Automatic annotation (TrEMBL):
InterPro entries: RuBisCO, RuBisCo_large_chain_AS, RuBisCO_lsu_C, RuBisCO_lsu_C_sf, RuBisCO_lsu_fd_N, RuBisCO_lsu_N_sf. PANTHER family: RIBULOSE BISPHOSPHATE CARBOXYLASE, RIBULOSE BISPHOSPHATE CARBOXYLASE LARGE CHAIN. It holds the Pfam family RuBisCO_large. Its cofactor is Mg(2+). Keywords: Magnesium, Metal-binding. The keyword NADP does not apply. Residues 143-421 form the Ribulose bisphosphate carboxylase large subunit C-terminal domain. This is 2,3-diketo-5-methylthiopentyl-1-phosphate enolase. GO terms for molecular function: magnesium ion binding; ribulose-bisphosphate carboxylase activity. The lineage of its organism: Bacteria, Bacillati, Bacillota, Clostridia, Lachnospirales. Residues 14-132 form the Ribulose bisphosphate carboxylase large subunit ferrodoxin-like N-terminal domain.
Length: 425
């Protein structure tokens, strides 16, 4: 028989220091889902319900997880509604935050370790954290407002390019591409996630070379392009890499949070005075499983924002990756909607972005986004500066409610881009 102390109503713990985790699980009809939920709540906290030396009632009261809800999917009420196949549920468990404190490694271990790693195939699909817990995370230093102030751009989406080829370039070769691109008036240019700090193209040397290119372009255009340097590295080298790029004059840096870890990302964002960009590269290994891992709106939205990302590259359903629109919207909302004291992180929409898609992104999220166009800029037949101008022309057309075909009659760069990247059938 289930013990009453293993269960609690959500209203009872709503304003207390508990993390509310929601899991998706598939079970054979012969498995008692109530018992499975109980086992998880105990197994991921005090470890056992069977009396053992050292486990006291006081310890259970303060440290034990509790089952809040078990939701049937579909919502079966009658045994006659249950089929012969696997049954699916959403299990909600609360964990005392005192067990792991305001840090990522042990929070993840509690949420997805022990039973969730050994005896229960579950996917973490949602997580609600108490305000007191979140208060320990500083979040973004700049956020949307700070990035607007940094760029001096207030009335449109920001525009970002990533240098192509992705890797194999020397600092000098990359600087040449940077200069030609910056002449188009792009707001940010970042490294591709595949280029960080290799021997053939050290990050600090890129910072110096690209800053010089940015300065040369500014002298011609009056528009400053900010370079975002990828410093993703091993834990043994990251501190030195960061010191080197800061000394070289870095104005923004990028880290792949799934590969360096959210805790490392947080430590860096809290210690440096420049914007930190988060990239979702390699997050698919934790997101794409139906019965394991965690949902992308957490791994790419909630956690990077908590860790201090000022801007985050996220995927979209429009570039060939089969992301659902629901997860796409939920990720952007986790980044940008009000959340306690955390400043909003600016979403970066990437993956196959070109002028023909600009209106779609603005319709989805408004203007507080960054459009990340790589190949559409670097692959423009008239050169990368023309690629930037084509994107800017598409943005202006969207904001002035001008049909793209009409705008293209006045802008050859835009017409060329539309003919190449989104030709009319």
């Amino acid at each position: 028989m289930s013990h009453p102390s293993l269960f609690v109503l959500p209203e009872h713990v709503r304003d207390q220091d508990y993390a509310l985790a929601t899991y998706y699980i598939q079970l054979d009809p012969s498995v008692d889902v109530v018992k499975k939920a109980e086992t998880m709540a105990v197994g991921q906290t005090v470890g056992t319900w069977v009396p053992v030396p050292g486990v006291t009632d006081e310890m259970r009261e303060k440290h034990m997880g509790r089952v809040v809800n078990i939701l049937d999917a579909p919502p079966c009420e009658l045994s006659t509604q249950i089929g012969d196949g696997l049954r699916t549920y959403f299990i909600q468990i609360v964990y005392p935050t005192v067990n792991f404190g305001p840090q990522f490694p042990m929070m993840f271990t509690t949420l997805l370790g022990n039973d969730a790693s050994t005896s229960a195939q579950v996917k973490l699909v949602d997580l609600q954290l108490p305000e007191n817990f979140l208060s320990h995370f500083k979040g973004p230093k700049f956020g949307i407002q700070g990035l607007r102030e940094l760029t001096g751009v207030w009335d449109r989406p920001l525009l970002l390019n990533m240098i192509k080829p992705c890797t194999g370039l020397t600092p000098e070769a990359g600087a040449k591409i940077f200069y030609e691109t910056a002449l188009g008036g792009v707001d940010f240019i970042k490294d591709d996630e595949l280029l960080a700090n290799p021997d053939f193209c050290p990050a600090a040397k890129r910072v110096k070379a690209y800053n010089e290119a940015a300065k040369a372009a500014y002298e011609k255009t009056g528009k400053e392009t900010i370079y975002i340097c990828n410093i993703t590295d091993s834990s043994a080298r990251l501190k030195d890499t960061l010191s080197a790029v800061l000394e070289a004059g870095a104005k923004a840096v990028m880290l792949c949070f799934s590969t360096v870890g959210y805790s490392t990302f947080r430590a860096i964002s809290e210690q440096i005075p420049i914007p930190v960009m988060g990239h979702y590269a390699a997050s698919g290994i934790s997101n794409e499983g139906l019965n394991s891992g965690l949902s992308s709106h957490l791994s790419i939205g909630k956690f990077p924002r908590m860790a201090g990302a000022d801007l985050v590259m996220m995927n979209t359903p429009y570039g060939g990756y089969p992301l659902t629109r629901q997860q796409y919207f939920k990720t952007a909302h986790q980044l940008s909607l009000p959340c306690c004291h955390l400043k909003p992180t600016m979403p970066i929409c990437g993956g196959g972005v070109h002028p023909g898609m600009v209106q779609r992104f603005i319709d989805d999220f408004g203007t507080d986004i960054i459009l990340a166009a790589g190949g559409a800029i670097q692959g423009h037949p008239q050169g990368p500066a023309a690629g930037v101008r084509a994107m800017s022309q598409a943005i202006t057309a969207a904001l002035t409610h001008t049909p793209l075909t009409t705008a293209a009659t006045h802008h050859p760069e835009l017409k060329t881009a539309l003919d190449l990247f989104s030709p009319t059938p």
